[in-house]
Amino acid sequence: MKKVKTVYDHIRDNNIKTTLLVILFPLIFVALVFLFTWIVLPPQDAANTAINVAIPTIVVCLVWMLISWAFGDSMMLSMAGANQINDHDPNYRYIYKSVENVALAAGLPTPRVYIINDSGLNAFATGRTPRDATIALTRGIVEKLDCLELEGVIAHEMAHIGNRDIRLDMLLITGIGVTVFIADAILRGITYSHSSRDEKNNTVVVMLMVWLAFTVFNFVITPILRMAISRKREFAADATGAYITRNPRALANALRKISENPRVEKLQKQSAMAAVCIANPSGARAFLGEIMATHPPVKERIRRLESM
Fold first, then answer.
1. Where are the domains of the chain?
2. Distance CA 171, CA 215 (A)
3. Dihedral, CA atoms, 270, 276, 277, 280, nearest 10 degrees?
4. How many CB atoms lie within 10 A of CB 200?
5. Does residue 157 carry a catalytic annotation?
6. pLDDT one-digit tens code per residue, 19-52
7. HSE on the CB side for 222, CA within 13 Å?
8. What is the pTM of this model?
C-alpha cells in the first residue's frame, strides 16, 4: 500500500530541495566563469580567474545584503502602499485578532499588520526575523474571504515567517541585483579599456568571457533556480499553514478565490515582489510557462492541500 504523505513529509521534502537549490547558485556561478574563461585561457589560469572573480562578487553581495537587511522591509511596504493597523482600529480589529490567534498557534510573535488599499486578493510577509515581521493583506482579500479562509492565508504567511523564507528571498533578490550590476561594470570596463594593443586584446577577450558568464548566470540560470526555489517555498508554506490551522481545506478554498483576481495595481510592475506574494500580483502567466512561474499551479497547490 502506498504511503500517504503527511504535512511533515511535505515540509521536510521542500526544505531539502530548497537547500540543494540554494547551494547550486554559487557552484554554478563559479563553474560558468571557469568554463567561459577556459575557452581563451589554460585550465589553471581559468581556475584562478574564476576564484578572483567569485571572491569580490561574494563580498559585494554580502555588503549589499546588510543594506537590504536594514531597509528592505520598509521599501517593500512602501512600494505596496500599505498602511499599518492595530487592535484599536474598529474597522480592522477582527483582522488583527485573527493574526494574533494564528501567531499564537504557530508559536511565533505577533507580526505587525498592514492593509493595502486594493480590491485584488493578495498578501505577503516581510521582515528580517520573526520578532520584527510584518504581514500585509489587501482590502480585497479581507472583504471577500470568510474567517476560516482568511486565517488560512494568514497561516500561510506566518509559515513564510517561521520558515525564514523572507531572509531567503532577500538573499536571492540582493544577490541577483549585485551580479547584474557587476556584469554592467565589466561591460563598461571593456568599452573604456586603455591598455596597450596586445595587452588590451588579451584582457578584453578574458573580460568578455567573464561578462558572458555573468550574463548567462543572470538571465538564464538564476531565473530558473529562483523560480524553482519560490515554488518549493510556496508548497512548504501551504503545508505549514495547514499544520498551523489544522484546516487545509480552508486555505485550498482561499486559493481558489485568490486565483480569480490576484492583481495588485501598485505591484504589477514590481517583478521582484511577485515571488513574496501568495499569488502573482500581476495576474499574468509567465512568458516561458510553468518553468519560469513565480508560483506553482493553483490546482496543484489545492490538490496537495486536499490530500492532507
1. 7-307
2. 19
3. 60
4. 13
5. yes
6. 776 777 788 888 898 999 998 888 898 888 888 8
7. 22
8. 0.75
